[in-house]
Each structure stands twice: as C-alpha cells, then as structure tokens.
Design goal:
- This protein is α+β, with helices and mostly antiparallel strands and 281 residues long.
- The longest helix has 26 residues, at 140-165.
- The protein has helices at 106-110, 123-135, 140-165, 169-187, 195-202, 206-217, 221-239, 244-250, 256-267, 271-277, and strands spanning 22-30, 36-40, 45-53, 55-59, 62-66, 70-74, 80-84, 90-98, 115-118.
- Keywords: DNA-binding, Transcription, Transcription regulation.
C-alpha cells in the first residue's frame, strides 16, 4: 500500500501563485541635455527611479514631476512622455520587466497611482542599486538574484504604501518632522553632524528621534547619514575622475579605509566594483 498522501491544491491556487518577473533591461541612465521622449508605449512594466536631478513624466494626461528619490512605474501599453528641464541633469535607474504569459496583479499590489513615493534612504533604494549592479554581472546566479530583488522591491513598496494609508493624523505630524530631519541630514551630509542639531530642529529628544526615524525610514538618523554619503560617493565615482581618497573626503570621510569599509558594508560590493559595473560599452 502506498504511503503517499495526495493533498489537493488550495482553492483558487492559480490566483495565488505567479511566475517570477523576467527583467529585460536594468541600467543607470544619464540623460543628455534637452533629452526627452515623445508619446510612446512599452510592452513591459517599467520602474523609473530618480538618482539625481529632475524630470517630468506625462502618463495618460497626468503630469508627474519627479525629483531625487522619486519612483514611478508604467504598465504595458500605457501611453507616456518624458521631458527634462533646461540646465537640470537627470540620472535615473530604469528597469523593464514582465511576467510572461501569466498576468501578474501589479496594479492590485502597487495601486493605480503611477507615483509610488519617495524612497531616498529607504531599503527600496538599496535594493534597486543592488539589482542594477548584479544585472550587469555575467552568470545565472546574478540574474536569479535580480529576480529575487525585484520581488522584494514589489513587496516593500506594497507594504510601504499600505502603511502610509493607515497613518493617523498624529503619526503623520511625527512623520513630517522626521522628513524635516531627513532633509536636514541630506543637506549637511559632508560635515560632522551632532544629535543636538536634530533635537533643536525637530523639538524632540534624541532617543525619540532615533525611534521614530527608524520606524519611518527603517534606519537611524546616522545610518541614513552614511547612506547619503555613499549615494553621493557613487555619483562622484560615475561622473568624475576623482580618486577614491578625494571622493571619501568630499563626502565627509577623513579616512579612505573607513569609507571603503562602510561602502561595502552598505552596498555588498566594494566601491571599485560598483564603479566598474556602471561602465557600459
């Protein structure tokens, strides 16, 4: 007698499990001066994440001005246009993906709004950078990791959006103060910041700031400071011919070894590896 027990599949199983995404393009795009795209439609989904600068997207009649940290998405066959601004650079991560023949409920997961939010300093930003980096590495292991990262990104965004929708008015006031603290750190990232400055800025105590900042952004204020410094270092590494030592000093590190260690700890790869992975033919 066979001991195998046949368990019937759960009801509506076809609605619960989907094929993983297939990424057709993932790169860092530097827009040339006066660059733009007239009306077009893509056959895939697309994420556009602003690394630096600004651009305006028109998606089915709605204009969305995107700045540093903003993330938007398009659906297949959705009409959209892109335009940059005079004397304003635009650098973005562009990721195209689809799910083959099996429809995936992306809009159910992310919502109808094509503007997904600002993820500067958020875990989503780190995962987007890792995806771009691994996509340009040869081998199935790297491509499989990219698929997993994309699914994590979709999940993180969905959870973040749900959290935003359920915030109370009091929570929103605290979040506004945390955004103020975050912006202050981003503007003064290359000098020695003190907790006292953040207390005076927000009117909150040091410990309270740490707790609420971590809840809002998934890290402490000074972990975010490190993240900003590293993001700025990536920009300098891509856009300039500065040495690693010069870049480390420019972003607030007196010791190049400390800078290198912190970069690898945050990004999972060395600074040299990151710069070489961004070089395309």
């Amino acid at each position: 007698m066979s001991n195998v027990i046949h368990v019937p599949p759960p009801e509506h199983a076809a609605d619960m499990y989907f094929h993983p995404p297939y990424i057709t393009l993932a790169h860092l795009f530097h827009a040339p001066q006066h660059w733009g795209i007239s009306s077009r439609q893509l056959s895939s989904y697309q994420f556009q994440y602003v690394v630096e600068g600004a651009a305006a997207y028109e998606i089915e009649g709605r204009t969305i001005v995107t700045n540093r940290g903003d993330l938007i998405y398009h659906s297949p066959s959705q009409i959209h246009e892109v335009r940059t601004f005079p004397d304003e650079k635009y650098i973005c991560y562009s990721i195209l993906f689809d799910f083959g023949e099996t429809p995936y409920p992306v809009e159910q997961l992310l919502g109808q709004d094509r503007y997904l939010g600002n993820f500067a300093g958020h875990a989503v930003e780190k995962m987007l950078t890792q995806l771009i980096t691994h996509y340009h590495q040869p081998g199935l292991a790297h491509h499989t990791l990219c698929q997993g990262l994309l699914m994590q990104i979709l999940s993180e965004i969905a959870g973040w959006k749900q959290e935003q929708e359920t915030k109370t008015q009091g929570q929103q006031k605290i979040k506004t103060k945390m955004v103020l603290v975050r912006n202050y750190i981003a503007e003064h990232f290359n000098r020695d910041l003190k907790h006292r400055e953040l207390e005076e800025l927000s009117g909150l105590s040091r410990n309270y700031i740490i707790v609420k900042f971590r809840k809002a952004f998934g890290m402490t204020p000074f972990e975010y400071l490190t993240r900003v410094r590293i993001e700025r270092a990536k920009e300098l590494g891509i856009q300039t011919n500065m040495s690693i030592g010069e870049i480390a000093g420019r972003v607030g590190y007196a010791d190049v070894h400390t800078f290198g260690r912190m970069f690898k700890q945050n990004m999972g790869i060395s600074f040299s590896q990151f710069c070489s992975s961004m070089v395309t033919d």
